[in-house]
Batch of 3 targets.
Target 1
Amino acid sequence: AFAEALATLLGSSDSAVGARGAFCMPPGLHRHHHHPAAPRTKIDQPSRRRRNNHSLNSSSSSYDGDLEIIRRNGFRHRLVSISNDNLSHHPMPAEIYDGGSSKLCLVTSIMHRRAESKAKQPLLKILLIDDDDRAEKVVDVGQLTTLWKDWHASTEPIDDPVGHFKGLLSEARDFLRDNSLQTEKAAMNLYNNRMANRSRPTDYRRRGLTKKKIPKVAAQASNPSRFEDLLRNLLKVGDDHMSRLVDSEFMMDYLYPDFCREGDDEQVVRRLVAAHVLSEDAKNGGRFRRRSCQFASALYGEEDERLEEIALLNGGWIAVDASIKSAVEGQKFASSAMSKNQMKKGGVSRALTAADERIIHRLECLAMGDVWRRSDNQGDRKDLEVDVRETLIGLGLPLSSEGARSALIEVGRWSNVSEDNLGVVVEPWSADTLEASRSLVKAEEKRRTLLLNTCKSIKTKPRKKPLAQLEDRFDLSSLPCVCIDAKRTSFRDDAIGIRLRSSTGRKVSKAASKWEVLIHIADVSDIYLKGEGLLPSHDIALLRHAAEQRGMSRYDLPLGPLHLLPPVALKALSLKTDEDSCNRCVTLWAYIDERDGKLLEAGLERTLIASPTALTFADATSLLDCDTDKSNVKAVLSVAHRNLSRWSRRHANLNEAARKREDRLSQKELISNATGRDGRDDGVGGSFQRSRGHRLVDSSLDLYAFALGTLMRRANQPIPRAPGSMENRGGRLGTAPLRRYIDGMAQRQAIAVLCDYGGKPLTKEECRLAARLASKANEAISNIKAAKDTPQGSRR
């Protein structure tokens, strides 16, 4: 470009000779220039007429200058040069928007608007592949979506291109009809990739094209005003490195993970499928919006009449902003909810997308009184997220808790179970899930009765081996244990006990301790096991899916909690504190050296325990402080507290995550004591207490998680963990299966590995999938806090 510009200034007929003569450069020196020109592909080559013409006129210089501006500012890969000489023997495939739909065409020639100003865009002559009569049309550049420039550059001319592409298009349609691809997942991954690509490094923002630089850059072009508009449009999409623009070639890579050689007919079929997926997503999914090709510059002949070559900026599909995407997702959800062919009462029948699940979670929170507050506070509509607002508007429902409940009932996620003079009683579960829960309650009652009668018929002393008649469980029904929970606890899922180590047959170190600490967690593994079990597989699948969708229980909503499973199911699975009952548990036993708190040995057992003594945190603290009580409950608390407190201190000294957690809790305790605002004992509403009872429970659950993780690591087996709860961060593991889906899956894996029960252990990939499913619900509402005010007149 430098040599050509210099030759033009010197008036030389041969740019290369002029440049070498002026500076006496030896031939070939330009090859070692620090900024070599990029090699041209076939479609970037100038026309044959232009190559043979050595006299560089002003049109050629302006054309080359325009193209160089585009390349220099980061849009090289989108630049496409096409000429009539090339198209006449090798038409270029392109996706075109015609008649309200996307189609495939072949660009056969470029046309000049002779009777009008050259400043206007040229026209293109095309052949539509979709039409049987091979109709030829003349279209604007803006009707083209994407030119297949890479395919065109890598293939040789075809004798009958129209017939060839018609056959491939028919194959693509057959494939779409007969096969199912993970189009939703592929489109979402591509969208996330493009949105993540928008963040520019600081140094790149300094060097790249900016709005402030555009007028100065456009002034160098042949048509500054048109070029300024062009650059502004390009800047909205992003340059080659940070572009939000995708095309069918991008989507093809996300749809098909396996390799396909470039130029093969199979690759064309795949790209046609990808083009259809992008077109349908733009129509229905809300992630992408069509972006047409744009005219950049044109090269004319010597007499400025014959149009020889044009340069275009390739188009495609642009990833839209998150707010637009959310609005379309809400509208799509409302449309699906209103279609009885796609959704049915009693449960959603169609496959839910990630956006659908997010909307349902937000609707559930809104139905329970949660309000999303924004800083601008411009009215009720601004308080709601865009997807929730559009869903309620699309369904014709009020933007309130009552409207959200009606929406959930309409899509079958919640059930309208009864009506009375006080209003409608609503269950936040589908009818199928409630029916499966009632079946679980009946089955659990029979099971408990059978196990209790079996326990009474045998000797009530601890057994060294599990009993077949007790479902291969260890019988611990003769040992006392305690549950320590908040006053308002509805479902108890953990208890603490002790056992003489000598009763197990394991080696006892008299200097260390004669006790094993027992930490019992309610056994809910039947819900997460695949195959025949306590209930028919259909009911188990419904309950497991319900827990999977909810993810975790929420207790911070104004109108009450949203539980992991229906309360009747949780009550059936929780620990019973009635005198005449028994409980199935997954028990961790720990042998701790009482001298320094070292964990000497630990293991996991499937057990049957008696009804624990129910205590509040205040009750447990009073018993620990009392020196005169001689009851079994006092003995259990004293031994457990002595062992667990010493292990906890040692663990905090050796584990950085435990130490940081202890520091945080100590600071909260200090603030709570200074303000004198103890509040509730369950942490709701920002209250905080840390009595000796609280410390005992915290230590027991920390030990359970630590020991379980250690045992699984020694067994060289994975276990599902929630994001952020890795061992090096001190996260809990398997301690709350009635409240967290991930803990139920962790319990299922633990007993499969350590107790050889429930079939094959989960693979590493299955554990990752469980973690992703558990975090999906939490991610949907992770940045949303419950409002303190409660709507008037609402009823659970």
Note: The CA atoms of residues 357 and 407 lie 14 Å apart.
Target 2
Amino acid sequence: RADVIMGIRGLTAFLDRFPSVWDTLVLKPLTPAEIKEGKQRTIKLAVDGYALLYYLYFSNNFNCVCGGQYGQFAEFTRTYITNLQKNGFSLFVVMDGTIEEVKEQTVVQRETDLVKTVKQLTSAEKYWGKKALPILCRHVFVEVLQALNVKIAFVDGEADKVVAALARANTCCAISKDSDFYVLELPAGYIPVDMLEVNRSGHVVAKRFARSRFLQELGLKSELFPLFASAVGNDFVGLELLRPFHVSLAQEEATLPAGWQGGDKEPTIRDLLIVKVAAFIAKHETESAAIKAILEAAVKQHEQDVANGEEVKTTGDEEEGDKAQVFTKEALEEAIKTSIEQYKLDPALVKAIGPETKLTTGAKCGMSPAVVQKFREGNFDAKTINVLTRGSFWCGGLVEDVDAESAWSSSRPIRSAMYAMLLEGSRKTVSERVRVEGHKFGEEEVEVASSSPLPFSEVLKGADAAKRRKVLFDVLGEAPANVPDNLVLAAACVRYWIKTQAPITSVEVAAVLATMLQRDEDKNIRPSKEARPGWFSIKFAHRLAHLQTTFLSANLLDEILLHPVPAINAAEAYDGEFCHRFHHLQFRAKGISALSEQLRKDGVDWQTFWSMYKAVTDKLDDKIKGSIQENLEGGIMWGPSGPEGRDETVEKNVDLSKLVDAKKGAQAKGVTGGLFGTLLGDEEDDEEDEEEEEEVPVKPASAAGESAAVDDGKKKKKKEDEDEELAKVLAEMEAVDSKRELQKKKEKDRKKKK
């Protein structure tokens, strides 16, 4: 599901300037005295899960370019939900399930659009406002909700109508971000998710749509609201079909409601159109009479356009969600009636959160009550159920190098093993929907083995945990030793990643492992920035995208094996900004203390890091460029070949004691640059820089001087920008360091007082 505001075109913006049709509710937590007196407050909410998920991630401007800020997102979500609960709100969150066949082309188009968005995010100068939800966000979101005992249910298909049906059946507010909810007659009303705010003091400010007041302001009957929405234009009635009707209203008077406030801004064309459509429909007593009038006006205008040679031909450049629709009276009538039907709620939809399902599978396990229950509760992923019931796996878009092979490719062997386990010979292939050549979202058929070492039906019957663990690591590779239980699966995935992405650099591995070992309190107080860092590396971003798809695929395999090891918690295992910053600060680092000092500033214990690094890279030296080794002065340091294996002038068997002596001698003489500063001259650095520069065609002598000046200016500006960005990063690190020391001092003083 893409981050788009679906529904009635222009209505959300129109209502934003219509304060009189909103009721404001302000709540604060009950005081201890009120609780002691026995006061209680319960406000039920039926919540569209994906709408809340997108709102929480992007409203706080978490960075998405670097791959995801899962720890900070988890903490923000936890705080938001906890504050709602303290104020008496009880949430029932409904999540989208499988992708229905009728929606597949829409999803394909949105994923194709997302590929273009990712291209802009990673390389364009103008990328503000572009967003790509990190692929593990939904898993983090669900884990937080489950930990807070929030009721959650995955439904067979889309969640929006189920949310509305639950809200109506339980007389509670609906929460979503779909303007179609304005149309629905819900007893307790509708609150757009971005209008359910929690301020810093923990108070809740909510704005609820006053449906009856809005209709009164526009002079519309309640039963005509669905027709009004359809005639303005929505997901079911495209602009091409409605154009003749809309043009026919051009000469009509537009009187804005008294409560509507434009401020200094003039009303937009769509604002005026909304008012005109409402006035046109309000003239008619019944829905059928209004539809007839709309069709007559549209046909008359269309005939005039044809006669005047002004008929608009379909170009295929419609707004997102529109279908190319050629105007005919019959096509418009059918679209309007289909649209009106969509606003009718079937009471039976409330059963969509229960044990019954319309989903079927040919696999031996079937859609048993146990499988359905795990799916409903979020313990069997919707992607897995999509494989079981539809034979397809959706490789959702993520930030990667869209000019390279999809980052989902390297983890396919993991998913292939999962397909064989799940399907048990019931299908020969699974269709993976994935980015293909040409920046498009396409389809690749993956052959499925007819048998598996451990079929899913046997797992459900209670297969031995040791056997399930063996199957998991037979696919991923040997589990690294001496790694904390909560990081075993993540560490195994890093080993898998090293093998599939080889040659990889030691600084890339170090950045990933340091991320896993940073302290939660440091991670949570570090601010995230939406902007793309000046030192963002598309090459490293693509490699990290491969790692994230490996994390997700391994988690799915672990899930259908009923967790022989704890699942990867993305909030602990991945931090995009941290990874990129660590890599940037260390990929050319020199000096005995560079690595140890970086780990210290990031609050990572070097001994724990060193133990994990050795475990993860064991027997993989031939796949890693660069190295890390122990420092004779204590701590660890980059090895003789440097963080990226570029400093080949240093022999691997060099006597470290002599290097340490050389460093001390250099310091006495005032030589800077640390250990590697004594070994590498400026000439070698310059040669490396020259080798990395792209070759450019020789320019005519007349243009050479001017071009050189321009290039020098650009390089200087880029260098200044990077230096400024780096200075900010270092300042933030020092601030975190100072805050950590202050917290330690306070804790020490507190213990003394005790």
Note: The mean pLDDT is 86.
Target 3
Amino acid sequence: MSHDAEARIGCTTDKSTLASVTAFSFKHLSLSLSVDFATKEIAGTATWTVIVAEAAEALVLDTTAGLAVTAATVNGHTVECRSLAPHECLGTPLAVPVPEAEREPGNELTVSLTYSTSPQSSALQWLPPAQTAGKQRPYMFSQCQAIHARALFPCADAPTCKFTYDAEVTVPAWATALMSAEPQGGPQEVPAGDGSTRRFAFQQDRPVPSYLVAVAVGELGSKRVGPRTTVWAEPCMVEAVAWEFGETERFIATAEDLTGHAYDWSRYDILCMPPSFPYGGMENPCLTFATPTLLAGDRSLANVICHEVAHGWTGNLVTNHTWEHFWLNEGWTRWLENRVLTRLSPHGEELYNFQMQESLTHLEEAVSQFGATSPLTALVPPLDGIDPDDAFSAVPYEKGLALLNHLTSVAGGHAKFETFAKAYIAAYARRTLTSADFRAFFCEWCGKEGVDCSGVEWEKWLLEPGMPDRAMQGVYDYPDTLGAKATQLVERWVSCPEGQFAAEEYAALPPPLKTHFLESLLARSHKAGAPLLPLAALQRMAELYQLTATRNAELRCRWQRVCLCHRAAFIVPEVVDFVATVGRMKFVRPLYRELFAWEEQSAVAVRTFMQHRDGYHPICSKMLSADLKLDGKSAKEQRT
């Protein structure tokens, strides 16, 4: 491997932070926060405990233009902070002067900052009652990944800076506060001049990076569904959520067995979010945030919860050193998720083979979206001057999984590679690593185990853009046994759309195969670049299989995309209704893109977005603006 290639895969410089991540070691954070729904602001103090690693005149923290720091002390001495030059993507760094007597390496500093967030904070979404399920109370939640924690509190917003934290959160008396930490007893009533409030306390004793600090406040109810799991949701949704996620403990226990490492975070609670939540799930320690689009009524979409459970080991416990090594979080989590599901499924390895075919389909779509030569389709993409949100795609998930499947084949099969996974988790628990660290550890393990890994083309895997080489062993050679019925049904429709079809053929397919049917139809439509079916056949399919009536959001999205590819005007009102009621980017981004690409409907796409953009999360709104060519605002203006 060339010197430049070695430098890229081993790069420890975090290009997504402006903070003093090498001059100081961040140990602990104490937050005292007050949530104000009237002003849409959080105000309070952030008190850092840091250790001086290198003598420096100032501690530089990541903040944004909208985060106002009004007072600061260092070891009890008042200091005057100053904002440094803003960066287009990375916010406005804050310099906190360090008194000369305190600059000696090894000194412990207590740095306290009084601050407030902006109503436009990219880390927060404030929902009026009308956008909640209960329609009676407002709601607020955070989303800090990848680099939005700096819009919630002054910090070193970098994965390599792991710290413990405690927090007190004061909220209206009707509200419940939750965080990515363990609650410390029940709420305490706090008298206030304009009506009663109450305070919640939290403690996170395991070190976490800033992107895993999370807070949510709303009218919430709960129900215990397992020995270490309570589900939370708005009261009218609690029972449905409890049933849908009732098998979570099976995922946790199986992951413990696969990794050989006990679950490290004590609690695995789940908060079912409002519809505007932009992701399927967010792996906040102790409290996963989950989209309500998982509520299919049949537990068929619980694999997303399995994915977030897996993050308890791969991502939260073992963490990518910087966002350029994001595949170490997500590729590993896709692997662990699918190994857990395979162990629990009666289909065993047939399920894994099927899921790997689906994975490659998703990877092909992501690569196509960026372009096969885009550096953002490499496993270690260059993020110099790039907002990590703009680089987000299925690539680190599915291409990372493909690399691990290749290494599984090199190691000698699943059982042997699971032995490696246990050694890997044990070696890097509560640590961060680069792609070079991972390569070195795998090669060292292979040497000890007598495995020849000399044929692994690391530079090609980690740095070359596009799809993996088809000659790579263990990547493409998965038999289509489980998905055969769905694939055959697609073939029949495409070859003879006027043929005889029965509703029972589709109805008898389990939900994953229904998804596979529509996924395959969509993939073939994209590859053909032209409609595969006449519109009459699509309408017949919709009626026969009742596709517009499904509660399953995965099926709903794929069916609508198939119809948009075929320029079926009858689906447009359904698409508009769907994107107006959900904010999950997995669904709304491709639907808006497909609608916008249809010349006759592009104005509908723009008009629909403009009508509903205030209801989307700031991250989602920013990405949709770019998709619809409306992104006149830069990332700098978006992150406030």
Note: Confidence is low (pLDDT under 50) at residues 633-640.
